[in-house]
């Protein structure tokens, strides 16, 4: 197409016409320009329509790919929303801008996580190396420990071997010391033999006691015979002589009897006295346990409790032995009462439990020792006079005021209980 610049111009040799230009010819360049613009607009419109047609009417392959992408997008959104729900977060927004932002954030987080993963993996490898080093050190220490234990056992064996010799030497020294102590004891016993009978002379002292008792009885009979005579026939000199002899013999007799009683108490204590209630026989343990519960009873209530014990445990009191303050001697007349209660009236196979009490005056330690001796002495007398089938044990119950709240002497007693077996 010709442009306005290419239109024919008059030659310089030819003068220009003087006629007026026609109206159509003067507007032809403007029409051409307008036509050109219109053509360009039409072409652009056609191209736009074709592009719109392609978007409105996609091909089958494009539609299938688009559906696949939309389904995948929906699946990913659902999975992401499920994970966010577990974490307590709000679901993803529906807008595409937010999705792009979230995608950018996820890519950034993924990059950060990848970097952290690499860092953690590096740290984990370092820790594994350190752990392997520690494990190697532990193995080395275990080996050293086993070696040291072996050396310790070896040294221990040597020490025990040496200790046997030292132990033998110590044993010999102890035996020598014991022998020296026994020699000293024998020397002391030999020095005291003239004034204090030992356990070895118990039978001899008993024979002397019986002899003194017989002489005492004989003298008493002689005195009674003299008193039976008339006053005119009484030889006052003979009477005075017999009375003086009786007065001389009685203290000797009593002293010998109490010495024998004390020796017998010491000899019988380990066999008759029960230190712990746990060592009592079953039938005696039941009685002991019941008596411990009666400390708050007095008078008639205590008597009723004793009657109940007799009905339920087949146990009864056959003798009460009282003592002077600070003493554990049993007088001759009380020995007869114990013999009458145990060997004479009791059943042939009865079990006797001597229960010792102490008043609440004095210390617990001194009361225990004194009551222990009292109970053992009473049990020793009963054991001496019992039948072979009978059995006797002694025990200490404790301090009490159950028998009399105002008079401590009445609480310093021993009860002799007979238990049926």
UniProtKB/TrEMBL annotation:
Domain OmpA-like intervals: 323-409
Entry keyword Transmembrane helix: yes
Source superkingdom: Bacteria
Annotated signal sequence range: none
UniProt xrefs under InterPro entries: OmpA-like (IPR006665), OmpA-like_sf (IPR036737)
Keywords, in A-Z order: Coiled coil, Membrane, Transmembrane, Transmembrane helix
Region (Disordered): 1-27
Biased composition (Pro residues): 7-20
Ranges in a coiled coil: 117-222
One Pfam family cited in the UniProt record for this chain: OmpA
Residue stretches spanning the membrane: 32-50
Protein name according to UniProt: OmpA family protein
Organism lineage string: Bacteria, Pseudomonadati, Verrucomicrobiota, Verrucomicrobiia, Verrucomicrobiales
